[in-house]
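Issue 218. Parser rejects a valid record. Input:
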Amino acid sequence: MTFRPIRHALAAALLLAPGVALAQTVPVPADPPAGGRFTPEQREQMRQRWQNMTPEERDKAREEMRTRRAEREKNMTPEQRAEMEKRRADARERWEKMTPEERDQARKRMQERRGGPPRPTTTG
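Output the parser choked on:
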């Protein structure tokens, strides 16, 4: 296992929990496990940090995640931006073609991968 700076926005936000240094790194496997960048244990640690945050800390963390994402996107090459937009459009098209039952199944699979409680759903 190697140590790399956190790149995942949620992980970075969760490290902002009280008592945790901003510059702290989380051990991330050099080859991420199948199904995600973090191990189940790492996701559970991040989930616990998030749950222990106050609503104000969560709001601040979300805003910082948005800022970092915008910065990453701003620094993309035209090719990277085109690839990202293509992936988004493909995912949106697949979602729109799903039946309500398929969408429910997809939401359940995402929830199982996250390992946390279901998120509130929006229409569509």
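Fixed in the parser; the record now loads. Residues 1-10, 14-29 have pLDDT under 50 and may be disordered.
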